[in-house]
Amino acid sequence: MLDFLLSTEALLALTTLTFLEIILGIDNIVFISIAANKLPENQRAKATNIGLLLALVQRVILLFFVSFLVGLSEPFYTFETSWFRAAISWQGIILLLGGLFLIYKSTSEIREKMEIPAHDEDNVKSKKIKSLSNAIIQILIIDFIFSIDSILTAVGMTNGLSENTNHNLVLMIIAVVISIAIMILFANKIRTFIDENPSVQILGLSFLILIGFMLITEAAHLSEVSVIGQTVGAIPKGYLYFAIAFSLMIEFINIKISKNKIKAK
Fold first, then answer.
1. Fewer CB atoms near the end CB (10 Å): N or C, the chain?
2. What angle do CA 217, 232, 14 make, to 5 degrees?
3. Where do the domains of the chain lie?
4. Of 138, 145, 126, nearest to 36 (Cα)?
């Protein structure tokens, strides 16, 4: 286990996944803050911290559930025609649906942020909260909604890293724990940074589109999909890590240049 966690590929996956989990948690932090701000001031920090801790437990439970389904790799039905063949398994179905969901969710989020950036926040603000328990319940509901793409991202980033599914599960749990811990410690600073640099969040959503396509091709590869005699191959995750790292480097350089220009004025 330790050898796997200290391997270069696992460390790269952990770093990338933790970053993406934080990016995905930005909206979650915003909505949690909105919900907590409806409480008396002396209860707001408590509601935020309790909500995020319970969100951590909720995500770990979801990770166990999704990992179990993804582990069902044995085909239960083979679809075959003269030009198309696929050995359908629960693993392939989960990855396919997950990939389609990530692409749909990411493109929808990008569109809404361009057209109606405060739409979801207004929906949350319209719901009255009368007690700490009501706030925490609303925070958990909000987190459950945002956990879906977060968990699918984790599955997509770690699937195939190790033949032992428990190793991948441990890696996902570590990334989720680290990301939630960072959110608890730096929630306001993270939110401020993203507000000042919204392109970072768009970049994160764009990464999800890449991961969505990777999940779809992974589903096709694991299902041994063959079209006109051509079998779908697996996409090496190293390409994805490089694309994400390169894009982040360019983005942070752009942010630095923009800040230097502002200081020079």
1. C
2. 40
3. 2-264
4. 138
- The model's pTM: 0.65
Side-chain-side CA neighbours of 24 within 13 Å: the count stands at 31
The predicted-structure confidence for 127-156, as pLDDT tens digits, reads as follows: 555 677 777 777 777 677 667 667 777 777
Give residue for tokens 């996944």: 17
Strand partners, 78: 87
Report the amino acid identity of residue 189.
K
Residue holding tokens 């679809």? 79
Nearest to 6 by CA among 139, 162, 147: 162
Residue 186: both structure tokens together: 């730096």
How does DSSP classify residue 193?
A: H
Q: Model confidence over 201-236: pLDDT tens digits?
A: 788 778 878 878 888 888 888 888 888 888 888 777
Q: Are 88 and 77 in contact (CB under 8 A)?
A: yes
Burial of 101 (0-12, 13-18, 19+ CB in 10 A): middle
Q: Are 45 and 135 in contact (CB under 8 A)?
A: no
DSSP 167: H
* Rounded Cα–Cα distance for residues 142 and 14 (Å): 25
Q: How many CB atoms lie within 10 A of CB 230?
A: 8
C-alpha–C-alpha distance, residues 23 and 243, integer Å: 16
Residue whose structure tokens are 């030009």: 83
Backbone angles phi, psi at 170, to 5 degrees: -60, -40
User: CA of 215: how far to CAs of 105, 190, 220, in Å?
Assistant: 14, 28, 9
